[in-house]
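Listing S7. Sequence submitted for prediction.
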Amino acid sequence: MTATSGTTGSRPVGPDVVRLQGKLGADIDLELLQLALTHRSYAYEHGGIGHNERLEFLGDSILGQAVTVKLYRSFPDLDEGDLAKRRASLVSTVALAEIARMIGLGEYLRLGKGEEQTGGRDKSSILADTVEAVIGATYLSAGPDQATDLVLRLVEPLLVDPDRFGAAMDPKTSLQELASSLSLGNPSYRVTEAGPDHDKTFHATVVLQGEDVSTGSGSSKKTAEMAAALEAWTRLSGRAA
């Protein structure tokens, strides 16, 4: 049963969590929702309390299934390859972070001091992970139907965006065209890598007119650049609008 007061069990739940529950429009247990908002950096600074990574794991699966079924039903003429590309564009870190920003999720996060000081409330990776954790919390609280309904409400603004899929399928070209239309010149990419040879992570930064615009990460230089390009395209699209 979902709590309606300021506490659930023995753990206090703040009014911000109650407010977010109402904004999401789902019958989410408040204690689970608070857990979904708890980043591991906060958990480590508070005696190793629970954090949202298990809920994120669950929510990722539910998100993928809900989006897959939605695309299958909405686009009967698309083949498997095109459906897969559209699904990837809707469940990407960039897309989920955009959804998080639309609903103001960053203000509700529980972060450690280090993440707080380095802009964690607007980090795409943290925001995307939290969206997945919230979906997982909804599934456990209210069942699969409400979880699916929440996913579809969250992705709807992206589904109806006519430019969404073209940019996601070829983000570097889309970014180059948009930057040119805004008289920003051609984007360049600065790439660094970290980790052992068998498990490297690449980090790419999009640079326009000498300024860093966005970042992205991936298991290869190409995927990192594509992630950074898609985030840059998303941000510049807002400026163009």
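Caption to Listing S7: primary sequence and predicted structure tokens for the chain studied. Residues 1-10 have pLDDT under 50 and may be disordered. The domain at 170-240 is CATH 3.30.160.20 (Double Stranded RNA Binding Domain).
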